[in-house]
Predict the 3D structure of the following.
Amino acid sequence: MTEPKPAAATLPAVADVIGALTGIAAGDQLDRVRDRRPESKEHAQGSFNALFVPVDTAHVSLPERAAVALFVARLHEEPEAVEFYGALLRETGGGAGLEPLIVAEAGRAAGSGPYGAFRAENASESVAGPEYTVASVEAAYALGDRLAAALEHAHMLVLHPRDASRERLQPLLDAGWSTTGVVTLSQLVSFLAFQLRVAHGLRELRESIGGAASAATAVADVTAVSAATRDSLEALAATVARAARERVGEEGAAAAASAPSVTEQLPAAPRVTEPPRFTQDVLGWKPWLEPLPVAEFTESHYDALVQRDRVHMPYFRLLARDPEALRERTLTDIDIFFNTDAGLPRAERELAAAAASRYNGCVFCASVHSRFATEQGADRAEVQRLLDEGVTARVGTRIDAIVDATVALTATPPRFGQAELATLREVGLDELELLDSIQAGAFFNWANRLMLSIGEPSL
């Protein structure tokens, strides 16, 4: 039984943000399709709430959360999200000059990823790309050490997920981030990689079934939206900010996140044996940050695990430093992959997860979900070919269509569009199966970035 939360921590109602970013009206065809996956819809919003309407701002302030989100939205070139998170930054007290500064920094940092180095036997697939640093003295001063370090970390996760390393975490700690703050920051950026891709995919799907023109085809300026959409998103941002202030109290909303009394240091590097290739074999995973000690777990932390025996797994103990975000993320995952009320077969959802992981360079996630695909009925040799040859391997018409669509969605900025949807329909996918394909691929842009940014696989 979970511990009751104090009244001040009760979560106020906040509208469906993915629906707002997509322009889906209650009761329309696509809304009814989303209602076939009610838990993923509820807990994707719950994940947003946990990260942007948090119970505690001691480690990451409300303006820091909104500022990072605006930067990430601009890197993804999602105009509705740029408008929404910009408004949220203003509403949470980010200051008059901070919004245009972050938009400008993100424009300077923009690129077409994922970049980064593959390792061992896949090193030849590596793709170099520019890395972002806050270069000007003026920008560094305006942002401050904490936010500057956070934007550099966000850029790495968004565009260079394969380049995540233990050494890249110490600058965050040096800038005043706590271990728990780093976990929340990585969770927030990784969640946005999911949320923005679901919104992008649903917007394209809405267009394909007769909705309004998508942003990709109708908007040239990545920060431009219609006046009506802007008004709606600004109103939603005001509601979110008000809910956040209500939840943490005005004092907590106004306070800056508290830095550790002593600059934290990374624990000793774990001893690992790096996997030489992508594999369906079972791998281990070792954290770069200190997981929450079992002795400090409360019933709320156990509730966040969903499955209590996960307390023995370092990955979940580390994410339990932000228990509410962990719980909502896990429940989103479960409905996307385990709700078998029609829709895409489990094996094909797992193939989408494996394809995203292979493209992003997450050896651990690729091992888990390629193995699950095989266990759910996919041909083992075909799945292995995807791992061995990469996402351009040709396996079969239907699988190739799902893999290609997932890769287009996984690209940053996403390039998933009408061509991918048409091909998926040609191989037999209906609207619910299209939703499952979008959500499965998008979710592993979340999972990959978490796995890659806070630890590493080991044989």
About this structure: The first strand starts at residue 284 and ends at 287. The two ends are 36 Å apart (CA to CA).
